[in-house]
Amino acid sequence: MVKKPVEQFEVNENKEADLQVVSKNAAKTVYETKGLNLWYGEKHALKNIDLEINQNEVTAIIGPSGCGKSTYLKTLNRMVELVPTVKTTGEILYRERNILDKKYEVEELRTRVGMVFQKPNPFPKSIYDNIAYGPRIHGIKNRKLLDEIVEKSLRGAAIWDEVKDRLHDNAYGLSGGQQQRICIARCLAIEPDVILMDEPTSALDPISTLKVEELVQELKKDYSIIIVTHNMQQAARISDKTAFFLNGEVIEYDDTNKIFSNPKDQRTEDYVSGRFG
Amino acid sequence: MKSTESGSKLGVQQMIEQTKNKGFKNIVEKMMPKLLFLTAFISVLVTVGIVFTLIFETFEFFRRVPFFDYIFGTEWLPFSGSSPTYGVLPLIIGTLKVTGIAMIVAVPLGLAAAIYLSEYASERVRKTIKPVLEVLAGVPTIVYGFFALTFVTPLLQEIIPGLKIFNAISPGIVVGIMILPTIASLSEDAMSSVPNSMREGALALGSTKLEVALKVVLPAALSGILASVVLGISRAIGETMIVSLAGGATPKFDGQITDSIQTMTAYIVQVSTGDAGYGTTIYYSIYAVGFTLFVFTLIMNLLAGFISKKFREEY
């Protein structure tokens, strides 16, 4: 059962015609999680997760602290493996290939799936070198091309006008909100397919938060975005679909307006109406 | 609570009031800064005293030997009875040969060890290896000295034909081994203090572990690494026992490394342990060489401070 999708992909890869059919069929679903369980040592952190995530949508993951929402997000690009005691079962199909299969090159996955972290984490390099880092490690050396990528990425992250005259200054001279948009631009520079965002505005002031939220709306035209947030208003404002996590389980997953106006589960209603969490 | 309710039940404030011995505490509070200042002052005074002694004796030396003959002289023959010459360049060259070879050994190995310990080793391995490295830094240099003379030199003579019993290669390598733990340990500290969020940021862009280590962590830790290298150079320049035992006592102004040399430190040892009488030019020459050495290490230490400021990457 685990092997099947992988084989299917490999067969399809050999026949270009089939591949096109597959990619057309796959156009809607980016991630398909089937029966995912995850343990940190003895702790059962994710329990039987089944989720389908669509392309060119913003999917929000909400839930109280410790519910597994960040863990789930980090499983999608296998960053969760940085914790040495982690164990998983089940499968996550990304574009129809199981990423939990050890044969799946994690670097390849992370080149296709970018990530923005809770705290802005630019490298202690110039703004330019921050953005050019991704393209460079993937072999792009051409100076002119890099210049174009840097400009395009910074424009994409709506920060070009603020930094265009100081591209060679250290990124740490920028404000927190600007740093976070630099991190988004750094992520855009390798033109990923999906962007994972782990509470990207929790360390930012309200104005910077608003800018990032507007940016997310803009970015969903070209990217699929999965955003973890503890801010329910934010989820309601920017997402198309919302998944509510509680104690490692998906309690409810539906269109955002349904989750917030007419949830099916009592626990979801209690959470979104602010009765706990 | 503050007011007295009954004799048996005292408020905490009142108990504090009763136990406090105000007079003694005040004296301690007043005297302590003075005592601390005194100890700090004494250590400064001793340092200044040493530097002044060096300067006075060096000054005396330069009344006998012209300054430019000393700085630019290429012959160091203080023991030649009739016409001694005091050109310091052969001693400096000797020191630089040993230091250069030491850095060729210590920098790549030390950095490789630091990268391994900081980026690859498990917590358990790191906790085992780091103390061992630090023990290596505590080995007395005299031990390294006879290790160079009785083990490394014979071994090298097998490989390099014509290598003399005293040479620059063997002490150079062993000085390198001696400073390797310093460079490895300090560089590891610098790399470990790079926040994990930066590694995660790089990994999330599809970097391999090696790319993270070389392109993110290493540049971010550059100031600490360079400072450790400069500190290593400074220690190599000042190293005495290894070069005295295995380097020889032949100051020569040339580029060979397979024959006997003499470093500044080894010359000082040679004269100090010999029978140069007080007041002779030879006696004063060790102060001049000592002062030269001091200038070298001072420059290195200032450089280390400058580098850690200049290359500091804020994060």
UniProtKB/TrEMBL annotation, chain A:
A single GO cellular-component term from the record reads: plasma membrane
* Enzyme Commission designation: 3.6.3.27
Where in or outside the cell?
Cell inner membrane
**Membrane topology qualifier:** Peripheral membrane protein
Q: Which residue ranges traverse the bilayer?
A: none
- Function in brief: Part of the ABC transporter complex PstSACB involved in phosphate import. Responsible for energy coupling to the transport system.
Name used for this protein in its record: Phosphate ABC transporter ATP-binding protein (PhoT family)
> Origin organism of this chain?
Kurthia zopfii
UniProtKB/TrEMBL annotation, chain B:
InterPro entries cross-referenced by the UniProt entry: MetI-like (IPR000515), MetI-like_sf (IPR035906), Phosphate_PstC (IPR011864)
Pfam families noted in UniProt: BPD_transp_1 (PF00528)
A molecular-function term among this protein's GO annotations = phosphate transmembrane transporter activity
- Assign the protein's first listed, main location to one coarse class: membrane
Q: Which PROSITE patterns match?
A: ABC_TM1
Q: Which GO terms describe its biological process?
A: phosphate ion transport
Residue intervals passing through the bilayer? 35-56, 88-114, 135-156, 168-191, 212-233, 282-307
Q: Name one GO cellular component term.
A: plasma membrane
Q: Which UniProt keywords apply?
A: Cell membrane, Membrane, Phosphate transport, Transmembrane, Transmembrane helix, Transport
Q: Which residues form the ABC transmembrane type-1 domain?
A: 92-304
Q: Name its cellular compartments.
A: Cell membrane; Membrane
Topology in the lipid bilayer is annotated as:
Multi-pass membrane protein
Describe the task this protein carries out.
Answer: Part of the binding-protein-dependent transport system for phosphate; probably responsible for the translocation of the substrate across the membrane.
Question: In which family does this protein belong, per the annotation?
Answer: Belongs to the binding-protein-dependent transport system permease family. CysTW subfamily.
Q: What is this protein called?
A: Phosphate transport system permease protein
